[in-house]
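Propose amino acids for all 425 sites.
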C-alpha cells in the first residue's frame, strides 16, 4: 500500500485524528488536502491529549513529513499559534512540516463575514465561525490571497485591494461593521508571512517526487463526506471537497489511484450545527450518548447532536468516495446500553429507501430500525462478544466493505485490527 486516505464517513468528528495518528506510524507523509481550522482532530497518547486544527495528525511521529496542501484554507495567526503549541510537545521545523505556497489565506474580513451572516441569516448554517466559507468564496471568484502572496508586500497590497473596496461597502451598509483598514491588514498579514515563510514550498511537486520515490502517503480528510460542498447535505455543509475527490483537487496525487480509502465512522451518528439528521435522538438515550461519549466539539465547544447509526447515509458515503473499509470508533460508548438500534433504511413518502441519495429529502425520511441485543464488552483484550460481532457484521454486510479497524477508547492503543485484515498497513 503506497497511497491511503482517511476520510470522515459521516458529519465530521468520527475520530479521524486518532486513526490517522495510528496509521501514520507506517507512512512517510501525512497530507491535509482541504478545510482549515474548522477541523479539530484529537489524539491521545499515554494520557496526553493533542488537538490539531490544520497541522496533520501524523505530526507526533518524528519520521513523518507533515504537508498542508494547496486545497487548505489557512488562517496565519491560528496556524502559528497551533505551531507554537505543538512545538512544546514534539519537534516541528521547516524540515518536517511543509505548507503549500498556493493554499488560500483566511483574512480578518472572512471571519467577520462568516459571523455576520450567521447572526443576520436568512439561513443559519451553524458554521464554526472561522471564516472558512467566505475564504473559499474568494478562491472561486479568483480574488483570494495565496500563501505566497504574503511574502511580497507589493503583491499582497495588489491582491488584497481587489476585493477590499467592495467588502468595506458591504460590511458598512449591510452589516454595520467596519473592517480593518487595508494598510493595517497588509501589515498584519505580511508580518505573519515573514514568520511562516520557511515552511512554504510547492507541495504538489513535493508529493509527486515522494510518490515517485515509492514513499507511503496518507491523505488525511477533515470534516466528513456528508459535509462535502457537492456530495453533502447542502446547504448545511462546509465549503470544501471533503470527499476523496478533494484529494485530487486539493493536494494532487499525480497519476495515482488511491489504493485504500478508509471511511471513519462512529458506531452511532453525531452532527454539529444545523441540517437534517434522520436518526437524531431527542430523548434520554440521545442525552446518554452525548454525555457518555463526551460529544462536545473539539473546535467550538458546542454540544454535538446524537443519534443511532445510519446505514443509508453510510451507503451513500461508500459510493461517494469509493471507501474500501470502515474504521468504526467509539464502540465503548455503546457498551452496556439497555437498547441498541441501527437504521437500515428510510421510509420516504411511503417508499422504502436504503441509500441516502441526494434526491431524497432527509427532513422527510422516517428511519426504520433493526434492534440489536446490547453488548457488554469491556474490551480487555479478549475476543469481542457474539453481540458485538453481530453488530459489526451487520454493518459490513450492509455496506459491502469490511470493518477493518474498531476503536474502544480515545487512546492510540485502544484499537483492534480485525482478524487478518491489514487496514492501512
Ligand atoms: P475527528 O475530527 O474526526 O478527528 O474527531 P474529534 O477529535 O473531533 O472527535 C472524536 C472524539 O472522540 C475525540 O475526543 C477522540 O479523542 C474521541 N475518540 C476517538 N475514538 C474513540 C473511541 O473509540 N472511544 C472513545 N471513547 N473516544 C474516542
Ligand atoms: P472535523 O475535521 C464537525 C460543520 C459546522 C457546520 C458546517 C459548516 O473536526 O471533523 P464551516 O465552519 O466549515 O463553514 O461550518 O460544517 N463542521 C464540522 N463539523 N467536524 C468538523 O471538522 C467540522 N468542520 C465544519 O459545524 O455545521
Ligand atoms: Mg473534529
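Proposal:
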Amino acid at each position: 500500500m503506497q497511497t491511503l486516505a482517511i476520510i470522515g464517513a459521516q458529519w465530521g468528528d468520527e475520530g479521524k485524528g486518532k486513526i490517522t495518528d495510528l496509521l501514520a506510524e507506517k507512512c512517510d507523509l501525512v497530507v491535509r488536502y482541504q478545510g482549515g481550522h474548522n477541523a479539530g482532530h484529537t489524539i491521545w497518547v499515554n494520557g496526553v491529549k493533542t488537538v490539531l486544527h490544520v497541522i496533520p495528525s501524523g505530526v507526533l511521529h518524528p519520521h513523518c513529513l507533515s504537508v498542508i496542501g494547496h486545497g487548505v484554507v489557512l488562517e496565519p495567526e491560528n496556524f502559528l499559534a497551533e505551531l507554537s503549541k505543538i512545538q512544546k510537545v514534539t519537534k516541528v521545523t521547516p524540515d518536517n512540516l511543509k505548507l503549500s505556497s498556493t493554499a488560500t489565506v483566511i483574512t480578518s474580513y472572512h471571519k467577520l463575514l462568516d459571523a455576520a451572516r450567521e447572526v443576520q441569516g436568512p439561513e443559519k448554517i451553524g458554521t464554526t465561525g472561522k471564516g472558512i466559507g467566505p475564504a473559499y468564496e474568494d478562491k472561486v471568484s479568483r480574488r483570494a490571497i495565496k500563501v505566497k502572496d504574503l511574502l511580497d508586500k507589493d503583491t499582497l497590497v495588489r491582491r488584497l485591494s481587489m476585493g477590499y473596496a467592495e467588502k468595506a461597502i458591504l460590511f458598512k451598509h449591510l452589516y454595520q461593521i467596519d473592517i480593518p483598514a487595508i494598510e493595517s491588514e497588509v501589515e498584519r498579514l505580511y508580518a505573519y508571512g515573514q514568520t511562516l515563510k520557511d515552511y512554504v514550498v510547492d507541495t504538489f511537486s513535493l508529493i509527486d517526487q515522494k510518490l515517485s520515490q515509492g514513499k507511503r502517503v496518507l491523505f488525511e480528510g477533515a470534516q466528513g463526506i456528508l459535509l462535502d460542498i457537492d456530495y453533502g447535505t447542502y446547504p448545511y455543509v462546509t465549503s470544501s471537497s471533503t470527499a476523496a475527490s478533494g484529494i485530487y483537487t486539493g493536494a494532487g496525487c499525480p497519476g495515482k489511484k488511491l489504493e485504500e480509502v478508509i471511511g471513519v465512522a462512529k458506531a452511532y451518528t453525531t452532527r454539529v450545527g444545523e441540517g437534517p439528521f434522520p436518526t437524531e435522538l431527542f430523548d434520554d438515550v440521545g442525552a446518554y450518548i452525548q454525555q457518555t461519549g463526551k460529544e462536545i466539539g473539539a473546535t467550538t465547544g458546542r454540544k454535538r447532536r446524537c443519534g443511532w447509526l445510519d446505514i443509508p447515509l453510510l451507503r451513500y458515503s461508500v459510493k461517494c468516495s469509493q471507501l474500501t473499509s470502515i474504521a468504526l470508533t467509539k464502540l465503548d460508548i455503546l457498551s452496556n446500553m439497555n437498547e441498541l438500534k441501527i437504521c437500515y433504511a428510510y421510509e420516504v413518502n411511503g417508499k422504502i429507501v436504503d441509500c441516502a441519495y441526494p434526491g431524497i429529502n432527509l427532513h422527510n425520511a422516517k428511519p426504520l430500525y433493526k434492534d440489536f441485543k446490547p453488548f457488554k464488552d469491556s474490551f480487555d483484550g479478549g475476543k469481542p462478544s457474539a453481540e458485538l460481532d453481530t453488530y459489526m457484521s451487520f454493518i459490513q454486510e450492509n455496506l459491502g466493505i469490511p470493518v477493518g479497524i474498531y476503536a474502544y477508547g480515545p487512546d492510540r492503543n485502544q484499537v483492534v485490527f480485525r482478524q487478518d485484515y491489514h487496514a492501512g498497513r
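The first helix runs from residue 16 to 24. The pocket of magnesium ion (ligand 3) is lined by residues 12-13, 39-41, 298 (CB under 6 Å).
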